[in-house]
Amino acid sequence: MLLEGSTIEKHNEQRLRRHKLKLASLQDEFPETEQIIRQIEAFQVAIPSWALGTGGTRFGRFSEGGEPRSLEEKMEDVGLLNQLNRASGAISLHIPWDVPQDPAAIRQLAQEYGLSFDAVNSNTFQDQPQQALSYKFGSLQHVDKAVRKQAIDHNIEVIKHGVELGSKAITVWLSDGSCFPGQLNFRGAFERTLESLQEIYGALPADWKIFIEYKAFEPNFYSMTVGDWGQSLLYASKLGPKAYTLVDLGHHLPNANIEQIVALLLMEGKLAGFHFNDSKYGDDDLTVGSINPYQLFLIFNELVEGMNARNMNHAKDLGWMIDASHNVKDPLEDLIQSVEAILIAYAQALLIDTTVLKQAQAVNDVVRCQEILQAAYRTDLRPLIAEARFRKGGTLEPLELFRSEAIRNTLIKKRGEKTVATGL
Ligand code: LRH
Ligand code: MN
Q1: Which end of the chain has fewer surrounding CB within 10 Å, N or C?
Q2: Using one digit for the tens of pLDDT, what is the confidence trace for 40-52?
Q3: pTM here?
Q4: Which 3 state secondary structure label does DSSP give 338?
């Protein structure tokens, strides 16, 4: 369900004068606004195909209604998101939740919606109905070679699906680990997992990458076989130049300094990119920037500094993906807020005066350093994000338009109250 162009024009007309006033005051104060707007225009965030329905927890699931019933309808929703904010022009598929039955038709549909395919995700953390061997005790780490082979074959099959769609990377997140001391030989598990990953690495097309996603706990609660950035980097370094470490913001132990991890992975040229979300306790998969927006800003500060140090293309050289699950919010409203939070953190990081910051760091002027960072963080750059959207034909206020057009109601009329999307 795409919006009429006239609907967006009418929405923007009603807001344009107020928007231009706010924009002008920023342009007066900051000569770099034009540069920042252009960098925001180039920035695209991939939407997870598994987060277009209502998630839920083991305690319950409360559907919003009108959820996408197929990959085609999921692409329709991402197409709509992209029409609203012109910054969600990519979708990240999870196999087998979203198998492209007819790749040619799916590619055609993606073209119509202006979408590309970001990293594809394998799934050896659930047993599928027709599956021969169980992943109860792991997949690539499993003590049984036959189970490891089944998991390796699945990952190679996922790569094939990705190649058919034009994707250029596979994300491997393993739930593998142990729940009790003594259950697992850590060295054995690492060596078997590395050997398995080497077979998957060997199946990568020349221009592909493999993203090794780490996680501190859940669903295993004593050890995870890819439990932190160090372990993921160890795998990625032993695998080769096409292997990188993917940072899911919710996969750290409490109070981990994620921005420092990001700075060092970037320094090593081993940062794959991100699964953006937010959390207060565990892998809560909440809206990006909803709990700790300052941490997100500090992460983008390290990203901008580190990418510039390596002359990287901000928009293209890292994987910018959301990984969220919606328990009490409308999935599309949640994703609109998440993309906005990412673009705001990026814009604020671009506003940091890195020259004076380096000077203050060079003389250990700790107070000045904080003042320089927080001056950028405390600047409301939402008009720059809105201007970037507006220049690309998007809406000045995506959330307002989503609501004023009662899009969820339209989706419910079209799809029904009780539809359930595949995914988390
Ligand atoms: C694991 C994870 C991983 C996905 C899954 C949907 O917690 O972050 O990225 O495969 O969520
Ligand atoms: Mn993730």
Answers
A1: N
A2: 999 999 999 999 9
A3: 0.97
A4: helix
